[in-house]
């Protein structure tokens, strides 16, 4: 095998699978544990949102620090930090969970930036979308079995078993991560060693590019709103599903993750990798997102079939939106500060997932989970309009 499926990249994908496997369990255990301790949806949303909020905060600096100290050294440090966070879950309460989520967020900021930028830099243009899709795919594979496993641990009253799983995942991920090697690549024609102070200034000044750069602005807004919906699904489905007859959060999250995996494989060559903005493609993706949130919100009246249909639709939307936007930006952003700008874009995805818990938690407390998901559907509908490129400017301006 060659290209995005060559052995060096497969090792990175396997490390990604191991790294994110804990989250598939934590995304179910934390809301259930919080509810059992009497926490409100707002508090649970804050704990869940702490992960992506800290990831978002550290993401723009991750690329620069990795370039300065090298990806292997940073990777080993963050695997230790991630291991400490997972162990923290085994002996603390909700307050400790908040700290652990924040520590996970810091390590994820550096982990994902190192791997994704490495994939973009190492693969030829025609394989970029596949490489990004495979990275994202392997981060979702644990979500197929993880939620069902988490519910099994919870229903068995097995917090002791949960602790064993967290310690085991921390050790296996750390050992495998220490054996991974990454070759440092260099963009042709760009001197990555000179003018380090100028690079720092460019990183800080690049925050303004979120508004000034039309490519980055449109992609970031779409990613932000999409991630709010994804975050609300992840944070509150374990609490919403028991309100439905025959509703099961584990089955919902398993269907969602399985559809993401299948769609990533089936659609990997359909995701545009030509640097052109495809309005109809993105509008269709936002339509799927809207329908998914509406199905989940209406299922409290319409029944569990609509609930699980929403899981499938949200899985397809998740499989498409992130690799499509990331691949597009890898073509249209200037190479001189492309890594920092992509880091800012990914930070908007992190912020959206965090807001899905932090903002939508109070909405659920004020109204209901059903109304909260219908509000998510309205946000998705607005993105259908926003994704339209009326005059083809996003392609013509390249």
UniProtKB/TrEMBL annotation:
Cellular localization per UniProt: Cell membrane
SUPFAM superfamilies named in the record: MFS general substrate transporter
Principal place of residence: membrane
Membrane topology type: Multi-pass membrane protein
Gene3D superfamilies: MFS general substrate transporter like domains
Key words, A-Z: Membrane, Transmembrane, Transmembrane helix, Transport
All residue ranges annotated as the Major facilitator superfamily (MFS) profile domain in the record: 215-398
Segments crossing the lipid bilayer: 12-30, 42-62, 74-92, 98-120, 132-155, 161-180, 215-237, 249-267, 279-300, 306-333, 340-364, 370-388
Keyword Iron-sulfur attributed: no
PANTHER family assigned to the protein according to its UniProt record, in alphabetical order: PERMEASE, QUINOLENE RESISTANCE PROTEIN NORA
Name of this chain's protein: Staphylopine family metallophore export MFS transporter CntE
The species this protein was found in: Paenibacillus illinoisensis
């Amino acid at each position: 095998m060659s290209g995005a499926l060559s052995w060096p990249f497969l090792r990175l994908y396997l490390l990604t699978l191991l790294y994110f496997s804990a989250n598939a369990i934590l995304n179910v255990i934390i809301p259930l544990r919080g509810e059992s301790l009497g926490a409100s949806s707002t508090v649970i949303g804050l704990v869940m949102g702490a992960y992506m909020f800290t990831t978002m905060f550290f993401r723009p600096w991750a690329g620069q620090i990795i370039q300065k100290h090298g990806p292997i050294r940073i990777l080993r440090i963050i695997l230790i930090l991630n291991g400490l966070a997972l162990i923290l879950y085994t002996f603390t309460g909700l307050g400790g969970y908040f700290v652990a989520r924040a520590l996970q967020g810091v390590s994820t900021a550096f982990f994902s930036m190192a791997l994704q930028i490495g994939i973009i830099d190492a693969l030829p243009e025609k394989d970029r979308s596949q490489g990004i899709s495979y990275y994202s795919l392997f981060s979702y594979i644990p979500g197929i079995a993880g939620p069902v496993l988490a519910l099994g641990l919870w229903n068995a009253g097995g917090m002791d078993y949960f602790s064993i799983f967290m310690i085991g995942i921390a050790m296996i991920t750390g050992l495998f991560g220490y054996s991974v090697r990454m070759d440092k690549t260099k963009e042709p024609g760009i001197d990555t060693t000179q003018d380090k102070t100028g690079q720092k200034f460019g990183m800080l000044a690049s925050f303004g590019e979120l508004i000034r750069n039309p490519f980055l602005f449109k992609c970031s807004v779409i990613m932000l709103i999409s991630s709010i919906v994804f975050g609300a699904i992840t944070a509150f489905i374990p609490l919403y599903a028991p309100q439905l007859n025959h509703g099961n959060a584990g089955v919902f999250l398993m269907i969602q993750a399985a559809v993401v995996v299948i769609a990533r494989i089936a659609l990997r060559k359909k995701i545009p990798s030509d640097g052109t903005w495809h309005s109809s493609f993105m509008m269709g993706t936002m339509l799927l997102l809207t329908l998914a949130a509406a199905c989940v919100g209406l299922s409290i009246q319409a029944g569990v079939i609509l609930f699980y249909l929403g899981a499938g639709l949200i899985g397809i939307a998740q499989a498409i939106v992130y690799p499509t936007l990331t691949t597009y930006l890898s073509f249209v952003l200037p190479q001189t500060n492309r890594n920092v700008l992509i880091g800012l874009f990914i930070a908007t995805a992190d912020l959206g997932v965090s807001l899905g818990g932090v903002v939508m938690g109070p909405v659920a407390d004020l109204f209901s989970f059903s109304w909260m998901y219908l509000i998510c559907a309205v946000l998705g509908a607005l993105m259908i309009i926003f994704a339209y490129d009326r005059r083809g400017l996003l392609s013509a301006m390249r």
